[in-house]
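BACKBONE GEOMETRY TOKENS
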Amino acid sequence: MVENVNDSTDSVHTQRSELLSDAELDYYVAEYSRSGFFGSCSYYSQRKCDFEDEKDLPRVIKHEALYVGAVDDPILKPELAAGMPRVMPNLKQELVHGGGHWLLWEKKDEVIDILQRWLKNLDLSKTAAGL
């Protein structure tokens, strides 16, 4: 149960998620207790700086890349990634069924398998040539 959420009946506040193992949860609790959320939230406060730094970068990414998405992600829906090949011509896209926005935790074995297969088939001659 989430601490200090005493009057909620929403299961997100009252039931322990199975997304993380006990060891993983203990790790995150220890780390966030030590450092707080500032580092995790810094990404959002830096977006304008990142835009300024990156605005002159090439518009097409030519090197090989992998995108792994979840069919059931309610946030980054598969159709939002459909245009990626226009700017990443060497992109390999994989969609995983049965996972959502936290795919790396929900379907970690499947994601690892996809990543290992992609790395095994990676054309290193293209990578070495900077493509």
In short: The CA atoms of residues 96 and 110 lie 8 Å apart. The mean pLDDT is 86.
